[in-house]
UniProtKB/TrEMBL annotation:
Source organism per UniProt: Aspergillus nanangensis
GO biological process, one term: CTP metabolic process
Gene Ontology CC terms, in alphabetical order: Golgi apparatus; membrane
Protein name as catalogued: Golgi apyrase
Domain of life: Eukaryota
Taxonomic lineage from the root: Eukaryota, Fungi, Dikarya, Ascomycota, Pezizomycotina
Compositionally biased tracts (Polar residues): 625-634
């Protein structure tokens, strides 16, 4: 292995797939190059703009033709990655395809078939490290996507390695993260100390590892709203428009979110030339009305089972905007900058200035906007389709940010602040980073902010060797001490063996003095052992033990017939010890052989189904001794999918007693008997999943990972 380690992540979003290539020094070179202070920092990951490539459409569009996703989509991305990673490093370079909201919206069957096809194609057409498709190729839940984004943001901002330079007050130094794509939206932040204590059970424990092997721990709240991305929100908005109209009574629906004079089909396309449009949308260009009609989409009135809630009845701890400063990416950046030119990446979001520019643009007639597009008035990237969507996106973003999440409207409440006050913030921003409640960014230190970077930070950090055996692993899970049972490991190679997991769980539960369940757990353990021995020893042994114990109560007692007999232990009526027939019991007491009556019409138990008969007609044979262990109890991996927005989070590698399986969303599923798994008849499968036998077992060398641009190298 050379000086550099590489990693490839494919972000399979709803509108397209983007490949990212990253690299970092191996742990030996990183420690040698680091100073004493740098040893307490995370591994340094590097990338270049040219190492990223995006193609359209998204993989979810291949749901009806999964056989095309490889040659018509993946191949171009795999070729791009191969051009960057050196040939001698490809076999040791992990590749991940992590799909997000677009794939979450597919039916289970289509989603699983598509993932299997991606796995098959990537395995057969690349030599990248792909030890387990169930881990490396999966649909991640929104909470995992949000957590990765939070890691990437704080990694680039330097708040992990230099917390003293990002003091927001009250001992708080990390930044909140906001992301909005086409189908979903995420929020992730570390609450203040008061809220962290109050909502400790709602937080996620995140553990990283520095170059010197020392750990970093953070506790983060993260949640996701499916169908709250801009495209899904637009779909829900148009459905509401149609529901509010009289069906069949109108052929044109006025849309205040479209510029005046623009007429489109309901799905936003240009009107067909033949004039057969059905119901069409007619823009009125009234942005205030657009804001009013998009507000109900926040679903602020939904029942809240666990106060407080923000959108759609989803619980979120109270946000202290004095210390929680948020960074928004994706649509938060594009909608505030692509058309309206809100300034550079290090300038603050000014609500007053932004809304004024949106009002000015969206109140124009469509003819004037088309003329401005031709003259590149808003830059060369703006086309007619983007211009027709931007007013709805701006209204949705404003509602989500300020009425949904509650970000203060900077400069709105103070009329004296009639200008965009970003210049005054730049000097302070260079020292402490972003200090306003919200700022939209695209790049930090010339590196694009992407949740894929957060995934690679975790992976590279997990490759740093530990100095002591007791060191806790890198990953994330429930906010409890030690290694939670739902802990998510960044790599399949880091998953402990089942024996280690089993021993570790029992040891911690039974013998750890800090565990409140130590004594009850130990008694439960003894009870289980005794019951297992009881059922495994067989009826004859149970009878002998029973009679020995029973004789203890008769020992030394009178045997004269005139003396009264002592009562048998438990009245001799325990069903697991006694027999149905007194005569049969006496035969056993006298030491006769055990036997079973059998014949051609004997009914065999289901456990003997398919076996040859153990008895012949009219014969007496000793009964077979059976146990509760069947031949079909061999553990097997089961991969499934849970689209809930709470679940665990990450690669789905999770540990627990007797649990080694993981699903494609990063959630742990219970290992079951192969007899209970129904295969999917789609090519070569094992228990409904594609066989991993073709992937050789690979050793994971210990490796070392703030992403910096290589533009100066």
């Amino acid at each position: 292995m050379g000086k550099w380690h590489y990693g490839v992540v494919l972000d399979a979003g709803s509108s397209g797939t983007r490949v990212h290539v990253y690299r970092w020094l191996n742990h030996a070179a990183a420690r040698k190059a680091a100073g004493s202070e740098d040893l307490k920092s995370l591994p340094e990951i590097k990338t270049k703009p040219a190492w990223t490539k995006k193609i359209h459409p998204g993989v979810s569009t291949f749901a009806d033709s999964p056989e095309d996703v490889g040659p018509h989509h993946l191949q171009e991305l795999l070729d791009h990655a191969r051009e960057i990673v050196p040939n001698d490093a490809i076999k040791d370079t992990p590749i991940f395809l992590l799909a997000t909201a677009g794939m979450r919206l597919l039916p289970d069957f289509q989603r699983n078939v598509l993932l299997d096809q991606i796995c098959s194609y990537a395995s057969a057409n690349s030599d990248f490290l792909l030890p387990d498709c169930g881990v490396h190729i999966q649909v991640i839940p929104g909470v995992t996507e949000g957590l990765y984004g939070w890691v990437a943001t704080n990694y680039l901002m330097g708040s992990f390695d230099e917390p003293e330079n990002h003091d927001h007050g009250k001992g708080h130094h990390t930044y909140g993260f906001l992301d909005m794509g086409g189908a979903s939206a995420q929020i992730a932040f570390a609450p203040n100390a008061t809220e962290s204590d109050k909502h400790a059970n709602d937080l996620t424990l995140l553990r990283l590892r520095n170059i010197d092997g020392s750990p970093q721990e953070h506790r983060v709240f993260v949640t996701s709203w499916l169908e709250f991305g801009v495209h899904e929100a637009r779909r829900r908005y148009l459905e509401a428009l149609q529901d509010a109209s009289v069906v069949g009574a109108v052929s044109e629906l006025p849309d205040p979110c479209l510029p005046a004079g623009l007429q489109t089909t309901v799905d936003g396309k240009a009107l067909p030339s033949d004039g057969e449009t059905g119901i069409s949308l007619v823009g009125t260009g009234k942005f205030d009305e657009c804001l009013r009609q998009t507000y109900p989409l926040l679903d602020k009135d939904a029942p809240c089972a666990d106060e407080p809630c923000l959108l759609h009845g989803v619980h979120v701890p109270a946000i202290d905007f004095d210390v929680n400063h948020f960074v928004g990416i994706s649509e938060y950046w594009h909608t505030t900058h692509d058309v309206f030119g809100m300034g550079h990446k290090d300038r603050s979001y000014d609500f007053k200035t932004y809304q004024e520019r949106v009002q000015s643009f969206c109140s124009q007639d469509w003819d004037d906007i088309e003329h401005g597009i031709l003259n590149h008035q808003w830059g060369k990237k703006l086309d007619q389709e983007s211009a027709s969507e931007i007013c709805f996106k701006a209204s949705w973003l404003i509602n989500v940010l300020h009425d949904g999440i509650g970000v203060p409207r900077v400069a709105l409440d103070d009329p004296s602040l009639a200008h965009n006050g970003t210049k005054e913030l730049l000097t302070q921003g260079k020292i402490k980073g972003y200090i306003d409640p919200f700022q939209a960014v695209n790049k930090i230190d010339s590196t694009e902010v992407s949740w894929t970077l957060g995934k690679m930070v975790l992976y590279a950090s997990s490759q740093v060797p530990v100095e002591i055996e007791e060191a806790l692993p890198v990953g994330f899970g429930s906010n409890v001490a030690g290694v939670p049972t739902d802990f998510q490991y960044p790599s399949v190679g880091l998953l402990p063996s089942p024996e280690e997991l089993h021993t570790e769980k029992w040891h911690d539960t039974l013998f750890d003095g800090s565990s409140s369940r130590r004594v009850p757990g130990f008694l439960l353990f003894l009870f289980i052992v005794i019951m297992a021995m009881f059922f495994l020893c067989g009826r004859s042994r149970r009878l002998r033990v029973y009679h020995k114990i029973n004789n203890l109560f008769h020992r030394g007692g009178p045997s004269h017939p005139n003396h009264p007999k002592k009562r048998k232990l438990f009245g001799g009526k325990l069903p697991f010890f006694g027999q149905r027939s007194p005569s049969y019991e006496r035969v056993l007491e006298d030491g006769a052989l055990e036997f079973d009556l059998g014949g051609p019409d004997s009914v065999r138990s289901s456990s003997d189904a398919g076996r040859s008969s153990d008895t012949d007609s009219g014969s007496f044979l000793p009964p077979k001794r059976t146990t509760s262990w069947g031949s079909g109890n061999t553990p097997s991996l089961k991969f499934g999918l849970d689209n809930s927005s709470t679940g665990a989070i990450g690669l789905g590698i999770s540990g627990g007693s007797g649990v080694t399986a993981m699903d494609r969303t990063g959630l742990v599923v219970r290992t079951e008997s192969r007899d209970h798994l129904t295969p999917i008849a789609l090519g070569p499968t094992t228990n409904g999943r594609r066989s991993r036998a073709g992937s050789p077992a690979r050793s994971y060398p210990h490796r070392s990972p703030a992403v910096t641009s290589l533009s100066h190298e």
